[in-house]
Amino acid sequence: MIGKISGRIDFKALDHVLIDVRGVGYIVYCSDRTLATLPGPGEAAALYTDLVVREDLLQLFGFPTMVEKEWHRLLTSVQGVGAKASLAILGALGPDGVGRAIALGDWNAVKAAKGVGPKIAQRVVAELKDKAPAVMAMGGGAATPDPLPDDAPVVETPAPRKTAPKPAPKPAANVQGDALSALANLGYQPSEAASAVAQALTDDPELDMSGLIRAALRLLAPKD
C-alpha cells in the first residue's frame, strides 16, 4: 500500500499531477480543490494517498491532509460512491463541509458535487451519519505531509537566540473535535452531538470552544 507520495511535481493536469520521486513518476488523481493548492512544476509537494487496485488498473488518489484521506475512505464505503465521486464531493465541499452536510442531513449540499445524484447524496448522509463524528473530531490533529523530498539537501541555519517560550494558540480546527468530545462525555450520542455542533457553527462560525458547547447544548435541549 502506498500511503504517501513526496517529491517534485513534473506537471499538473486537469484531474491529476505527476510527481517525480527519485526518478520514478507517480500519477496521483486529486480533487479540484487539492490541485488548486499544489505548487507548480519543479516545486516540492507531498500528498497522502489511497491506492485503488483492480484487475487491470492501479490508481493513486491524493489528499493534502490525513483527515481528508479518511473522509475519502469513508465516502467510498458507501455503495455507489467510487473514488472519483468521492473526489467530486470533497472538491465541492471540502472536508469540513462534508462533515457539516452529513451531520445536518443536508443531502442537497452533497448533491451539488458534479456527477452525484440525489439518491447517492441521500445514501451518503444516511449511511455516514453515525460514522462521521469520529472523522470530524480528527480535524484539529489532521497531519499535513512534509513536502521536502527525501534526497533534498539539508541547509543548516544559525540557532536562534533563546527567548521565553510563548504558549501556542489552540488551532481553530481543534474546537470542533473538543466540543464533540465534551458532548460525548455528557452522554450525547455521536450523531446528535455532531448535528448540534455543525448547526451551531453554521449559525456562528466564530464560536470558541466554550461558546460552541453552550450553543450546541441549547440546540440539544428538549423543546417544550
Can you describe this structure?
Residues 1-62 form the DNA helicase Holliday junction RuvA type domain. It is found in: Cytoplasm. Residues 175-221 form the Holliday junction DNA helicase RuvA C-terminal domain. This protein has helices spanning 32-37, 66-75, 83-104, 107-111, 118-128, 132-136, 173-185, 190-203, 209-220, and strands at 4-12, 16-21, 24-29, 44-54, 57-63. The chain is an alpha+beta fold and 224 residues long. The protein folds into three domains: 4-63, Beta Barrel (OB fold (Dihydrolipoamide Acetyltransferase, E2P)), CATH 2.40.50.140; 67-130, 5' to 3' exonuclease, C-terminal subdomain (DNA polymerase, domain 1, Orthogonal Bundle), CATH 1.10.150; 173-220, Helicase, Ruva Protein, domain 3. A hairpin with a 2-residue loop joins β4 (44-54) and β5 (57-63). α7 packs across α9 (209-220). The chain is elongated.
